[in-house]
Structure of Fimbrial assembly protein:
Amino acid sequence: MSNINLLPWRDSVRARQKKQFLVTLAVAALATVGLMLLGNGWIHRQIAQQQERNQFLQTEAVKLDQVLGEIRHIKEQRIQLLERMRLIDAFQQRRNFSVKLFNQMPELVPPGVYLSSMNVAANRIDVVGKTEAYTRVANMIRQIEDTGWLGEPRISSIFASDVQPIALSQFSMLFQVREPTPGEMQ
């Protein structure tokens, strides 16, 4: 057996194993590169889709900001309109005030009380007059309190005057006009 030379056969097996190893290595390298390219492409697609979503969200956010700006503007207009409506309502309430006041004054002023001046400023009415007796001014105060729309009557001053032929006392009174409640507004 020593005559058998196994080197060429071993060399051919080694060459075949080496060739098979290189082919397997090349296939594995190609498969790895292919998988890396597929993974890279998938990741780039995912990034592109997310960027599209982000862009869509940004455009929608801009649209919502515009809508919110319009809503804010509409709320400001609403507040201005409500303020105008309150002002118009106040003017409507004050429009008939003098007529109502002068229509009710004969009922408020008892006999023996004579008014010489009446000054209306905002919600305050100043009255200056003369009276035959203090009790008549007290009756006038009670009648003012009973009206419901006039209140807080106060005597500023009352004093006797020396005017002849009848001795009358001079007085000064002020009272407030009450704001009507929503049920009283007409």
Remarks:
- The first helix runs from residue 7 to 95.
